[in-house]
Amino acid sequence: MTLFGFINSKNTERSSHLKLDPENTGFIPVENFTSLVEHHELQLDPSKLDMLLALVQSNEEGQVCYQELIELMSSKRSSSFRRAIANGRRTLQREILLDETGLGLYKRFVRYVAYEILPCETDRRWYFHQNRLCPPPVFIAVVTIVQIIVFMCYGIMLNKWVLQTYQPDFMKSPLVYHPGHRAQVWRFFSYMFMHVGLEQLGFNALLQLMIGVPLEMVHGILRISLLYMAGVLAGSLTVSITDMRAPVVGGSGGVYALCSAHLANVVMNWAGMRCPYKLLRMILALVCMSSEVGRAVWLRFSPPLPSSGPQPSFMAHLSGAVVGISMGLLILRSYEESLQKQCSWWVIVFSFITFLLFAIFWNIFAYELLGVQIPPPP
Q1: With contact defined as beta carbons under 8 Å apart, do 235 and 315 qualify?
Q2: Range of the domain at 197
Q3: In 3-state terms, what secondary structure has residue 205?
Q4: Which residues form the Peptidase S54 rhomboid domain (predicted)?
Q5: Active site residue 195
Q6: What is the pTM for the complete model shown?
Q7: Most buried among 89, 207, 210, 377, by the most CB within 10 A?
Q8: Other C-beta atoms lying within 10 Å of the C-beta of residue 160
């Protein structure tokens, strides 16, 4: 029987608890735990074995919390487990990841990702040892490839690679969000595949791959795709409320959600982050993101070429950043922790749903009540 089976088996859970903690104090004497380890086979990955050794060897009270042991042996870590290692007076005995040698190319990349994304050495060690190629980080890669393919198709068709929105045929695309077509619900999402020109596509694709792929590797496809698509949806809905006559193109809502979440996480965990040149890179990222917003504002209010209608709005950038700082920051700070058990997560979900319902009613009734003159759809 494995140690995990001995502790968690339904038939032996009560008896094992009595054996390990006969006085029912909630703590296991180190002697009892050591005996259990010696007489039962351990089938653990190196990171979990390190945690077990840390719980036993560095405990000044000479006892191990029974609940911490249960949570450690389960497949998911919990907040109490994190506190037991990170906030207690317990240390990991092995050297830090940067000191490990003889790593292959992929494992070196995994180590690089760990130091880019995670602020805690325990989390970095955990991610490094449990990382697997399956499932691969495909969401950001697929979105980027589709965006490039769509841009290439329209570039060839229009024979124009910059300021494509000034071409009427571009604005006729069924993917572009236009207020005159807001009844076509898919446009609130599909606009992320269209871009003003090569400069916007290049900027978005570069940030998606440099920040989105490492984030997806660490936090998984479900969380990162949720964050990205929440930024995209919030972008188009915000434009429909605040810039009611303007269309929207580009994946900037999702990109700014990812970037803002990551930058906010770096700032809030500044001391723990070990990515090189973090101050210089932070300044460079903020300058580039601000420049992109400034370019979008310029194109919206001072178009360089005559156009048949308003140019795409810049509000998707700002709303994506808000989603990143709120929802995204909580996701990034909850590495391998359950979001459903956190009250703040439900507050954010409730707020987003409230915003979504308000935007739906706004799009149904406000345009007519306010008498907004929508430019004729192409």
Answers
A1: yes
A2: 138-370
A3: helix
A4: 183-333
A5: no
A6: 0.78
A7: 207
A8: 17
